[in-house]
Amino acid sequence: MRCPSRAAxxxxxxxxxxxxxxxxxVARAARRDGGQPYRALDVFADVLAYIExxxxxxxxxxxxxxxxxxxxxxxxxxxxxxxxxxxxxALKEETSGEFDGIGLELTxxxxxxxxxxxxxxxxxxxxGILPGDRLLRIDGVPTRDxxxxxxxxxxxxxxxxxxxxxxxxxxxxxxxxxxxxxxxxRTRSVEWRILDGERGYVLVQVKTFQDRTDAALKKGLDxxxxxxxxxxxxxxxxxxxxxxxxxxxxxxxxxxxxREGVIVSTEGRGRRNVEVERARVKDTEPAYPMIVLVxxxxxxxxxxxxxxxxxxxxxxxxxxxxxxxxxVQSVIDLEDGSGLKLTVARYFTPKHRSIQELGITPDVLAPxxxxxxxxxxxxxxxxxxxxxxxxxxxxSEAAAAAVARSTIAANDHQLQTALDYLRAASIFKAWQAxxxxxxxxx
Length: 442
Known about the structure:
Layout: E1 21-25, H1 40-54, H2 61-73, E2 81-83, H3 85-96, E3 98-101, E4 104-109, E5 112-118, H4 123-126, E6 134-138, E7 141-142, H5 148-155, E8 162-168, E9 176-181, E10 183-186, E11 190-196, E12 201-206, H6 213-228, E13 234-238, H7 247-255, E14 262-267, E15 275-278, E16 290-294, H8 301-311, E17 316-319, E18 327-333, E19 339-348, E20 364-365, H9 370-373, H10 395-405, H11 413-431
Parallel strand pairs: 1-18, 12-13, 13-16, 16-17, 17-20
Antiparallel strand pairs: 2-19, 3-10, 4-5, 5-6, 6-7, 6-8, 8-9, 11-12, 14-15, 14-19, 18-19
Helix pairs in contact: 7-8
């Protein structure tokens, strides 16, 4: 499995960004440099022995070791995580598209659990939970300073079991308690429908990048053509609230709309282990006009797709600033069934842009709500503790992102809209291949 990945941790019930993952199956951790153990491990072994032999209560060695590993990994960036066996199983279930829980994608901001986006048709969405909501209590237990793994454990439960969540939202005068019933959440990664049959316009929504997302996308596009009785003449690709997922699937989805060129490149520490994914002509969709919808919940793998289509001029990106997660994680199977999700690389768009902290700036800014106009559109990568700084971010890019997050056309919305349409037209024109010259007959 590969995924670039969202801003937090992916859970069984509270799926937080598993996007950007690249899974390596290994039997044990890599040997240390030169095969020599760290001297600090002697100190660790001494402390472990003192606790086991002298602590006032019995403690399990496994819990002590797991706690130490969690503390160590917790010193890294917010996307690196040690997962105990039950949490690691949840991650694997999530990539298959089925899991038990309430269906919330979460991150941690200021030591609080924050909703990135609810999964469609899951208990969380049905209860009215929105992106940006703060989760204050789980069954009466405060979540401040609660480790994410422990929060996940408390959110888990059998379908039909009840759970009470205390939620705080911008605009609430006081927290509200929501009573939910856990369910078996079955996510369909791709849904589609005809927007305008006469004009041949189609909407395709990609909710997350799972094992067979590209296959589901192809099936949806073919189904739309069958229902239209002809070719698609315009496509809206909806990536809003898509937290990401498997990198390989993101590459395949972008490849479906690109004839050639770089889709994404990744670079490890010190720019080592550079990998470049390129588009292929085979199975490329026709060059119909294309709009990609994005928002603050568009993260990681979905940002890779949006960035590739934007850099190649294949689609107009419309919506609000995306999440801004520009790193790649490897997921490693450990001997006891636990797992390690470790950030191993940064990724770059075809024009070698890093979207870390910044996100994808839409070609056409179109806020979803007035709250979005005020900037109340949920947390982004730049809001996470210990996140990587984007050293390559230029002042002009930072200024453009700031403008994108502010108001649009405050004084003349119609003029702004006209300008946006001109931008869209120029992008579509640039994508179209020039017609061959007509030779005059004599």
